[in-house]
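Structure tokens please, single chain.
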Amino acid sequence: MPMCVTRRLLLLLILWTLTAGSAWAFPIVDSDGRVVMLERPFTRIISLYGAHTRNLIDMGAGEQIVAVGRSDHQLPDLPRISFRDDPERLLALKPDLVLIRPMISRAYPQLAKRLEQSGVSVVSLQPAAVDELFRYWEILGRLSGHEQGAKQLIAGFGAGLAEIRLKVDYLTRQERRQVYFESMHKQMKTFAPGSMAIFVLESAGGINVAADATQVRKTNIAAYGKERILARANQIDIFLAQKGRMNPVTIEMIKKEPGFHVIKAVRENRIFLIDEKLVSRPTMGLLEGIQTVHDILYPQAGRETR
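Here you go.
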């Protein structure tokens, strides 16, 4: 059922509340299988992923960040560095923790090795599915010594999700919109079932017409192809596409794509773009993404509640 992920996440929130305060995070095992023994909170953190930065700020740990990634503009007064830089540039900032994600580990394995040789802890984190979201936030809270801030983040997310869920529960099956959610236009790719983006879509009340998409490796992306999209042409009420660095697309590009004129959503001019940060990053921005998608799919419902 489309809403099973949302129900499962709400159940996880209840279980997390009952078990909060346990010491399961000692030792901490990151997304790459690296084990970090946490003896005390880290106080000089380099964050090389914008989602880590956003979550640390929201937990109250923003002052512990000493540098951010090259494309991260959330803390404009801090140095911006790249995982491609010479590790000595990172070491010059005297960090005690460098936060990365698996993509960086795979592309630059020598970075973590060099940092660890100098006594700097390296933790790679990125929840692979929405079910891992709360654990990810709790780990960040423990690493920074802001467990209470992490608890507030989790509780706030659960409350916001439940509020949106109430709106969706009023929709009948016939009212629910069927959506194709594009991740990468040039490659005709969508999102994998269980990914953050599909969680956003289904939590907003949308039905994923590409639920049979094939996941690409262990990423959030799934292959679909034009032929399969066009085979569902008359089922697609809404054509939704993320927009950002991963998918620099425009509505006009989608309209002009050869063959797309037969898609119901294209014929009826129901093509919408949404900032990739609101659907792909494991932050509180997911709530804004869910609400934004809900308003796109059900604009009349939004007006009735105002």
